[in-house]
Amino acid sequence: MSQTIYVATTNPGKLRDFAAAAASRSKLQIVPLPGLGSIPAPSEDEPDFEGNAKRKAVYYSRFAPGEIVIADDSGLEVDALDGAPGVRSARYADDMNFDHPGATDERNNQCLLAQLATASVTSRLARYRCALAAASGGACLLTADGAVQGEILSHPRGSGGFGYDPLFYLPELGQTMAEISLTVKDRLSHRGLAFRRLLSLLAEIGE
Description:
GO molecular function, one term: ITP diphosphatase activity
Number of strands: 7
Mean pLDDT: 90
CATH architecture: Alpha-Beta Complex
Distance between the termini: 14 Å
Protein name: dITP/XTP pyrophosphatase
Subunit structure: Homodimer.
CATH class: Alpha Beta
Shape: globular
EC number: 3.6.1.66
Strand content: 25-35%
C-alpha cells in the first residue's frame, strides 16, 4: 500500500532533495501540500531550527486533515560569525541591509563573503543544519535533525544545488555542495540525513 507525505514547501531545491531521499522507498510519495501557495505563511520567529519546523508542520497540517505533513527549517552556521546566519539564512542579506543585485541566493552568498572578508581560512568552519517535523491534524508527531560539516570558500564553485551550496566546501570530497551529484548529496547532506531519520521514526510509530 502506498503512502503519501505532504511537504510544506514550494522550494524546488528542497523538493528535489526530499524526492531523492525517498527514492529507495517505492511505495512512498512525496508531494507538495495542495494549495500551499494560497495559504498565508506562519511566522518563523522561533530561536532554533526545530522550533520553526514544528511551528510550520503543525500549522500546515490543519489544511490537510487526516494526512501527514512535514516541514523543515534549515540553514548555515558559520563559526567565525558566532553561528550566523543560522535561522535567518534565507533572509541574511535583507537582515544585513546588504545592497547587491541579483536573486536571493546570490545576494545571500555575496553577503556572507562580505562578512567573512577579514576572517582567516582556519575560522571558516561551518555546518549545514536541518530540522524536520511531522504533524497531523494540528499536532506534532515527531522531529528529526541532521547536520553536515564543511568550510566556506572565498568564492563560489559549481552550478548545482541552491542556497549557500556553491560556497559550502566538503574537504573529504574536495568539492562544494553545488558540485556533487544528487546521489552523493542525498547520502551526506543535512536534509537527506534528517529526512531518512524522520522516515524511520514514522515507520516505527506506524507499526
